[in-house]
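Q: Structure for this?
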Amino acid sequence: MRLSDLPKGSPAVVDRVDDAHASDPIAQRLRDLGFVEGEPVRVVAIGPLGADPLLIQIGSTRFALRRSEAARVMVSAQVAA
Amino acid sequence: MSASTLRIALVGNPNCGKTALFNQLTGGRQKVANYAGVTVERKEGRFSAPSGRVLYVLDLPGTYSFDANSPDEQITRDVCEGVYPGEAAPDLIVCVADATNLRLHLRFVLEVKRLGRPVVLALNMMDAARRRGVVIDVPELQRRLGLPVVETVAVRRDGVKALIAQVDGEIPQAAPAQPDDADSRADLHAQVRALLAATVSMPRATAELDDALDRWALHPVFGLAILSVVMFLVFQAVYAAGKPVTDLIGDGFSWLGAHATAWMPAGPLQSLIVDGIFGGLGTVLGFLPVILVLFFFILVLEESGYLPRAAFLLDRLMVSVGLTGRSFIPLLSSFACAIPGIMGTRSITDPRDRLATILVAPLMTCSARLPVYALLIGAFIPTRRVFGVFNMQGLVLFALYAAGVLGAMGVGWVMKKLRRDRSEHALLMELPSYRLPKVRDVAIGLWERGMIFLKRLTGVILGLTVLMWFLSTFPAAPVGATGPAIDYSFAGYIGRGLQYIFAPLGFNWQISVSLIPAFAARETAVAALATVYAVGGDAANGAGLGQALAANFSLASALSLLVWFAFAPQCMSTLAVIRRETNSWRNVAISFGYMFVVAFIASLLTYQITSLLT
């Protein structure tokens, strides 16, 4: 599933980041920021207007991503331990 | 000792505390300029090490990756690689990493190491890391990375001792340079994971305080409420602290001008000094208090970590009109004055978003428009109640503010449709940990902003003010002339010429003439109208002038003039700051041009429609 479809608060891990088009700088930047396979992620907050942007926790860092940016990240939901 | 000077470059991720470290190392001994041809700040400082060696420190823009996405990241990479024209390659790179956020920051450390240059790693914010129970095996990290690692606490005076001792000693051996390709890039994350597993233990990923604060600050309802309160307080402070000082400075310079020239015979020279130079200086310095108060809050909000939260809350709204969440604070500042607003767009890293914000910022109703609004509304709009509750005058004032905001949204939307670059520009914004702003960092930031304004703009604004003075003073009125002197001046001629252009808007020649000094500073339009209508007494309270205006022009003309002031390209100081901040006359021409067209059409419609209805 896409990170943009992940419900708030539920844990997931990153599978991969898809390029939205050839040589997509946003996808490359997401990979550089740590959106790589096996990394745990979580949606911690959602923007008040139009449910956009999303606040994503990855490692110790929180990134605000617009939905179109988060849609590039494919994740697998995890059952909370 | 081999060399008496050493050039150090500070690099690191955004929010690693690099600038605080830079301030702690160099104190006030800093030089801020721009890199040639771009509006990226170049900050250099120096300090003397215990050995007596002078160390030059370059604070490079914060960067997530050498795969550069913006002009400032490009510069960081080029300087580190030693290929930036006119910039000597650094002798030593100090890579700064936030010890509480090593998962993100270590990857960039590995990228820097691959350049094959001498590198020292500074683990910054060690105090916060210890508080959060983060334990780092520094000797092991040092061994695995193959570069010297020192702990720093940038906000404490003794927190940089170890770093100074390290950079003052032998320059470490550089690791061999490695190629930069997609495979090795992907491999960096695996290396970071291995490093973290071997050297770092972290009880929890985030600070509990951050989680608690963000639950409120980013809450869909409370978050917006908190933001409104913060902004309300900022504006109260601007008007409570900035405005009175501005008025004091203006009055002070008039007084100084009058007294400095009391011994001189009345004549053009005295007039030049009083009205041109002292008046101009009063205008320039009068901006300073508002700029400093606004920047104080912008810096505090930025240092504390709240600014990106505000951007998060409002991003969606701003995107819909072709801007970004980061545009919000600069635009809000522009309600006080467009100059700090435009200077504040430096926090927008994306060049396209930044330019869009700069172009719409002057449409926000700045405080200098208020005297003109107050005069015209007082003279023409009846104090009638509407629907029993609203005051008609208040409604008109509100409509003018709303016109500015809606105009900016409209212009932003049109720009979004017109621009050639339709590609997606990312938000991708890190929300850093909350921090208490440090007095030193805020003070240095304020000093820099103040100096940028004074050094780079005083000349331009003063020059233009003197030019305006010249136009409205020469040629002098002939002997025995009955009309006010400005009638006979160049400004008078220009105003009479402009009147043909402005006639469809309902402006008579007196208004047209007053628009010329209004270009220097909007609020002078009131004084200029008082001059052309030859109203004696205290023009500032506007009562006499209001009556004169009411007797001389129609409601339609007055509304049209109000609308003109809401949109017109005015205040040459704003245009000067656009030139400085974008490094381009083309952008000045675009701003001036589009605002003129918008103002003309809006005033034309206002005049023609009101004339039909009344």
